[in-house]
Design goal:
alpha+beta, three-stranded antiparallel beta sheet, about 20% helix
Length: about 150
């Protein structure tokens, strides 16, 4: 039986940008976004062939937020299965990325229509369906370093 499924999962680099003082940067997905328009989300992008995780994250931070990453730290890995039956399968490598709050700007206005800083205990609603899991890894990291 023929299938249109890929031969394996894709790899995504998910990043939680923070200001070094505990606030996180979230982007609101625009009406033209691939999915879940109007929801708030962390950043992410597919790993390209031959690219290291860190280069992928640095590239995506520049593309999405028009700034450079000051630091990049791996904080977890997630197996993301979406749909029933499964329509997409990603291995998400999750990173904490410090950025300068004064330098961020929307770099992809066709995907995002707002960027805002939030305290982890005062997050906006609605969040993207995959956002809470990445933020939980970031909060675990914060608890470990405090």
């Amino acid at each position: 039986m023929a299938t249109n499924r890929p031969t394996g999962p894709s790899v995504s680099c998910v990043f939680v940008c923070h200001d070094g003082a505990g606030r996180v940067l979230l982007a609101r997905r625009s009406a033209a976004a691939r999915d879940e328009a109007g929801t708030w989300d962390t950043g992410a992008g597919a790993l390209e062939w031959g690219e290291t995780f860190e280069r992928a994250v640095a590239r995506e931070v520049r593309e999405e937020y028009s700034t450079e990453a000051l630091s990049i730290e791996t904080i977890g890995v997630r197996n993301v299965l979406r749909g029933d039956p499964v329509e997409s399968h990603w291995v998400a490598v999750v990173f904490a990325v410090e950025v300068d709050p004064e330098r961020v700007a929307i770099g992809e206005p066709h995907k995002f229509d707002a960027l805002e800083w939030f305290a982890p205990d005062a997050l906006p609603i609605p969040l993207h369906s995959q956002c809470a899991a990445g933020l939980a890894l970031f909060l675990d990291r914060l608890d470990r370093i405090r």
